[in-house]
Amino acid sequence: MTAAVNVTRNPDADWVAWAAGQTGIPERALRAYVAAAVTVNATEPGCGIGWNTLAGVGSVETAHGTYGGGYLNGAGQGSRPVVGPALNGAGFAAIADTDGGALDGDPRWDRAVGPMQFIPSTWQLVGRDGNADGTADPFNIDDAALSAASYLCAGGRDLTTAGGWTSAIYAYNQSDAYIRKVHDQAAAYAASTGAAG
Predict the structure, then answer these.
(1) Is 78 helix (H, G, I), strand (E, B) or coil?
(2) Is residue 1 scored above 50 in pLDDT?
(3) What gap in Å lies between CA 74 and CA 29, rounded to an integer?
(4) What's residue 10's pLDDT?
């Protein structure tokens, strides 16, 4: 990638409502992306992750938790669980079950879960409680967005640089096509809200 695409700002209800209208991102998801970026940038100021990067990932992964006609309720829960295909080596990596099917319902193969599509073993390592309800739930957009932001910033990555941004997204999904999709979507969100990418 030739440029990092991160827009940072503090959450403001009026701006979130306006930006949701400009971008087509569900307001509930956008609020979670902005809050996660602000939270992680406060604890890891060298990261510089933008809400639009998280929104790019959320868009590519599950259309912000709306894949298959679902929606996010006011508490940030999906109307139905978003569970990806079996990671059985047929078109995807082969990842044998790591959670006894607890999160993904599959005791044989892992499946990515939730609006940000975490593999259960990754969730066990990085899952965070973003809504302060005492539980880290990959199916909750607040928890999933905060966990994704933390994961992308891990290892001291600087997402304000092209190399750092690309490295972070590559850690999330090791596909050049995926990186391009997230980059293009994040850049489009920045442009539609009048922010420099």
Answers:
(1) strand
(2) no
(3) 10
(4) 61
